[in-house]
Amino acid sequence: MFTLCSRKRLRCRLDLAVLPRYPQAPTEPQPKPGSVLTAHAHSERRLQLFPALARVRDPPSLDRANQSAEQPHAAPAHTPRQKRNTSFSGRKEQEFCLMAAPGKAAAFRLPPLPTIGEIIKLFRLKAQKQLSQNFLLDLRLTDKIVRQAGELKNAHVCEVGPGPGGITRSILSAGVEQLLLIEKDPRFIPGLQILSEAAPGKVCIVHGDILTYKMEKAFPKHLKKNWDDEPPDIHIIGNLPFSVSTPLIIKWLENVSKKDGPFIYGRTQMTLTFQKEVAERLIANPGGRQRSRLSIMAQHLCTVKNCFVIPGEAFVPKPEVDVAVVHFTPLVQPKIQQPFELVEKVVRSVFQFRRKYCFRGLETLFPQDGRLKRTEQLMMTANVDPTLRPFQLSMSQFRNLCDTYRKMCDEDPSLFAYSYREELKQNKKMRNLLKNQPEQTEKENQL
To answer: Which of 31, 52, 153, 253 is the most interior residue, by most CB within 10 Å?
Structure first.
């Protein structure tokens, strides 16, 4: 029913009498005045209210990590009061859900579960600093991260480092077909097992390291698409630890270039979290101070979008930096048509001396004999101004440098195997030998 308020604005007045009665959840008994409800007593009372969660007290072993996915999910028993209030059909309940969340079809709903904070307390989980672990407890933020991945209904998703399962719940609520969880820390496995039992047949838990896990067989073969087609219904989502984020994205960018790993199925999309500074490097444009090697390697292979920033206060424990959510979509054609190793070598050499002219960094591509002449030849052929700083070079200039360097390597096959750092080590050893040689000669003369 709609009425006009005093400010002549349309106001909706909800008539509770015409709404269908919704089954009431069991109410938790309140503590007596003056009593102290500890965390342990709180968890005990919650387990009494939800008998299906009694297995939390005796978490399943790792050997049974996915055994419960094959068992049918038992519906919770209704109390007499609930049965009296259940006066509407399943069809009306579905209509009510759609009315509560317009634009979303609630095809799958998780049963009542302990909150993320209660999971952390029950299993005594603590973030380890050496693993760069930070927990995201706000489910509104986890829902926002999952929405950036796109339409996930009936999709296959791989979540990296689910931890206590905050983002995992949001992914399951999006109606995915299958969810693969890859977790390195075994302390989180029992908490993830609760979600596996709550969503039977949807969750597969893998205890392993994402840096070494082979994803070529992680998804069904019928999901494969050609590289020129639209991206497949496969997504990679993760709140990455800071210590792993940069090596992992470089590894996946190499997989994009070679079309293997998780990209053997097509142009798989990724939605990942990074430090705010790392995210700014990923999307930095030419001339920006954040322009770096990571900018070139990511942008010549993918469309990179910085979605939004999460303040550090939202994490537990609070990190010293803010966190940004970045979305990657592989390009049909890379902007630099050269092998990944060659592009990475040229880009790494250019940014080796970031604050100097790019001429100084390109010199490290060539041996000491004839270094100056070859560097001038490279820059003249590529039509690059030698007085530009590395962060001022555009993507087309990097493409010209890589194409020219490839031709020079074809003429001299030993050029690509040359390493500037190895030459420095050899020169240092020779200087040390020459320095110690006069001392040995003096000792021999004294003897």
So the answer is: 253
